[in-house]
Amino acid sequence: MTDTGTATVPGTGPAGGFPYRLIATDLDGTLLRADDTVSQRTRDALAAATAAGAAHIVVTGRAVPWTRHILDDLGYDGLAVCGQGAQVYHAGEHRLLTSVTLDRQLAGVALAKIEAETGPLYLAASRDGLEGDVLVGPGYAVGGDLPAVPFTDASDLWSAPLNKIYIQHPNLSDDELAEAARRAAGGFVTVVMAGAGVVELLPLGLSKATGLSLAARRLGLKAADTIAFGDMPNDIPMFGWAARGVAMANAHVELKAVADEVTSSNDEDGIAIVLERLAA
């Protein structure tokens, strides 16, 4: 892990009447609506909470290059945890504060073990850094219009440091693929299911909780200060770390099972509903 300095972020004082000093929100399926926008009601609710002294941290599976444009559009200038906890990013300064990379030798062993059980996989990989490309191999389907660089030579996958590897399978469901990957290679990498068509191989032991705890420490905040919002199994460690975990109505059943509360969906201002209630 590299560490390039500390950050001072506004909105880290006592939270007045607001019961949590830190609000951690996932992006896709949580803060973002289906059209990749954030509603005005949710923007207002977050603004009111931060005006009351709470800090807001975005905690996303997306690496920085797939996150930065969203944060810029929101006018977000605080810390963001990206890449499933691998990166702590200062959005206001456009600066990467910490970064954890995947051991490529272990990742290669993990892939071989998974493919021995499932058959050939479709692959993509996220390169490390502020400008790290996402490399996409034949057959791998990238959602939306996110930028990606195609590759056909497998050696390109390993030619630079990586945050993660994405895997897809022509027949298995996401849940089936994630379970098979954990069974085959769980001793070499962390396997998470982060959304539709998004099963990822991460450095062993890495999770959103890892990155969130680092970011919170920079703000002088703790797990006991934190309310977290999410929608997918990759948010389970974050819920385990935070004092309160709130799942969206559209959340995966595994996350709902460990949530303290289920709110409305991401398209129905689920975050705002909870924040407005807490502020009142």
* Uncertain ranges: 1-15
User: What is the succession of H and E elements?
Assistant: EEHHEHEEEHEEEEHEEHEHEHEH
Helix content: 25-40%
Helix-and-strand structural type: alpha/beta
Tally of alpha and pi helices: 9
Spatial extent as radius of gyration: 18 Å
User: Going across the major beta sheet, what is the strand order?
Assistant: 1-6-5-4-3-2-13-14-15
The percent range for strand residues is 15-25%
Number of strands: 15
- Choose one word for the global shape: globular
The oligomeric status of these chains comes to single chain
Please describe the biggest sheet, giving its number of strands, its sense, and whether it closes into a barrel: 9 strands, mixed
On the 0 to 100 scale, the average pLDDT is 92
Distance between the termini: 41 Å
Write up what this structure looks like.
The structure is a single chain. Helices cover 30% and strands 24% of the residues. It has helices at residues 27-31, 40-51, 68-74, 104-118, 174-185, 208-218, 236-241, 253-258, 270-279, and strands at 2-3, 22-25, 55-59, 79-82, 87-90, 95-99, 122-127, 134-136, 149-150, 162-168, 189-195, 198-203, 226-230, 244-247, 261-262. Mean pLDDT is 92; it is low at 1-15.
Which helices and strands appear, and what pairs or packs with what?
Blueprint: E1 2-3, E2 22-25, H1 27-31, H2 40-51, E3 55-59, H3 68-74, E4 79-82, E5 87-90, E6 95-99, H4 104-118, E7 122-127, E8 134-136, E9 149-150, E10 162-168, H5 174-185, E11 189-195, E12 198-203, H6 208-218, E13 226-230, H7 236-241, E14 244-247, H8 253-258, E15 261-262, H9 270-279
Parallel strand pairs: 2-3, 2-13, 3-4, 8-9, 13-14, 14-15
Antiparallel strand pairs: 1-6, 4-5, 5-6, 7-8, 7-10, 10-12, 11-12
